[in-house]
Amino acid sequence: MSALFEPFTLRSLTIPNRVWMAPMCQYSAETSGPGAGVAGDWHFAHYAARATGGTGLVLLEATAVAPEGRISPADLGIWNDAQADALRRITGFLRSQGTVAGIQLAHAGRKASTDRPWKGGTPVGPDADGWQPVGPSPVPFAEGHPVPDELTREEIGAVVGQFADAARRALAAGFQVAEVHGAHGYLIGEFLSPHSNRRTDEYGGSFENRTRFALEVVDAVRAVWPAELPLFFRISATDWLDEGGWTVDDTVRLAAVLKEHGVDLLDVSSGGNAAGVRIPTGPGYQVPFAARVRAETGLPVAAVGLITDAAQAEKILANGEADAVLLGRELLRNPSWARQAARTLGGEVGVPPQYARAV
Fold this sequence. Notes:
globular; alpha/beta; two-stranded antiparallel ribbon
């Protein structure tokens, strides 16, 4: 059997194949009022298409645990019950197609309150439904971005509680996988990296201090997330800085600790915390980071980053470099990528009877 289409079991949950959808923001929710952060028809159609296309696990986009945790005012949220209720429509349909529904719980930190990417992605203020961002330190992400308010110890504790509350709502909404977003320069990643974390208290300085917030969030989510269901953590393996940033060595070290704290899989990406860095992209360019974590810690990993071809994905898994692949832009281009890859590799995915004539 094709490695890409072997089921994968974490705790008591079996995911039907190793073709997974990476979280990708749609910036398509209402920006204010009672509908702020609520999933709508676009979100349903978007995720449903990937499920009918055979994707084994769909991880919903970064979903904010608090209003000020959104990347843009148009992001999804899960800080209230109305938002969770709207997501139940999506999870129900995904599960009806045999696809596992997952959600990425997120707080954007100092990179919050920006416009939609197709409108420039620049910071927005209260006149455009924006707000004042927060972060570990008063260090802006880039020139032209606001200086974030430094979170107090009490505020850090409140954010930890917001992640736990969001996880409870996610469970009630029907999700079977929760992923804590610690990557791409958002709040948890900002605490991890000395590039963005200049604190001198117990949340800054040493590796143990800079990882404290991440572990507090993981512990809080794991405490409310059922023992039989898996918890993921997404990380940027490196800031791509020559010095003064988060490194691959740091990622391997943290991965071992996350495993001890009940994380079942590391979703390994990179970058996003330092503006203007040059990243040497190419097919599978981030796969070696995932492979190293898997080899040195034994923690299951998912690989991401310009994985576009069925044979390429199969080789990554067959070589033991990852346990699954997460596709991003390729699934935007082709919602039925999994079904087509199965045909190429001799694997099997479920096909809705309505589409059987096209197989």
